[in-house]
Amino acid sequence: MVRPWAIAGPVLILILAAPLLRPLRAQSQASDREAINLAAVRAVLENGTLAMDPSAFRHNESAYLAHGKAFTVDSPAFPTVLAGFAWMIQKAGVEFDTNPLFLEYLLILFAITLPSALACGFLYRMGRIFEIRRGWRMLIALACVLATGWFSYCVVLLPYAPAAALVVMAAASIIHLVTAKKPALAVGWIVAGGFCAALAAAIEPTALWSLLLMPVLILAQPHPWRVRLSGVLLLIAGAAAPIALHMSINPPITGDFLPPRLHADFFDQSLMPVAMPVSISVSGDDVEPLDASSWVIIGRAINRLITLTIGSHGILSHFPVLLIALGGAVIILHRHWTRPIKWLAGGTILAMLGLILINTGTRTQVGELMFAAPGLLATLPILLLFSGAWLRRRHHKLVWVLAGIALSISVGITMIGATAPAPPGGYSGYTAAEAVARLLSPKRPLEPAPAQTRAAAIR
Question: Quick check: pTM over 0.85?
Answer without folding.
Answer: yes
